[in-house]
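Sample pair:
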Amino acid sequence: MQNLIAHPQGIYALDSGYGRPMLAAIHIIVHKGHAAVVDTGSNASVPRVLSALAHLGIVPEAVDWVLLTHIHLDHAGAAGSLMCALPNARLVVHQRGARHMADPARLWEGTAAVYGAEKAFELYGRLVPVEASRIVAATDGLEIDLAGRRLRMLDTPGHARHHICIWDETSRSFFTGDTFGLSYREFDVDGRAFIMPTTTPTQFDPAAMHASIDRMLSFEPRSMYLTHFSRVTEVERLAGDLHRLIDTMVAVAKAARGDGVARHVEILAGLEQIVREETARQSWALSEDDALELLRVDLELNAQGLGEWLDAQRERAGGLVSA
């Protein structure tokens, strides 16, 4: 089936169709005739998921779980619609995100604030609530069973406070959402992947992201399954790059002057310079211009997130001073 990639241990990556090819993956774990879906893409992704399940010989009634790494809508926008099509599935989501799946009004408002209402609707469509009785609020260490296959939820803040990563004991791999960054396949050089942190609005926390990465490394994973985009190995090398780039991006943000648009432009220029430096460091076949174009949206969102992190730091410091 086109847009479906087979990985070891019954794991499949489906191109969600979001944005451009190989931008966002929906992962399907198949085990003993049952399945779990990890992240859902947008509403437009639902037909793709159902077609992929049919291709894999999985009837909708045999999907036991829909697992959301977090509730940003490129990961969770189709959760309600997909749950309508999977009658026996339960939805697992971080305990901070559970109420937003049952009543997505505030989630929609936050998304519209980032993208604008018209663009948000174009990207994600109408959000469908999930019945509260079908939602499992994931606490740290929660384990679920997929036909005898154990999946464990870890609380992994840094990208967002409502983020979990999912440990699959069978493949010794994590499904990492955005906590372990993004790694687009266009940047691969002879199978060697590149990775970049995602500091998007509104809950970026560099210290928490460092800690979440190190916590996952303690499991000695063989691979990571990223939403953007799918499987990477050489986990320790990539983790080292993530740590380095988190610190570099934070330094860029701290060095930016002023406020508002002027500061945002300066942060964005600093992030673009990081990409130029990585072009040489990573020996990409891509030109600097091509690399910047592929990362254009991510860099814009990263700059926004870094700006909001700076503002939060200032507010926190101001509160301490006034106290």
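The chain has two domains: 4-234, 242-322.
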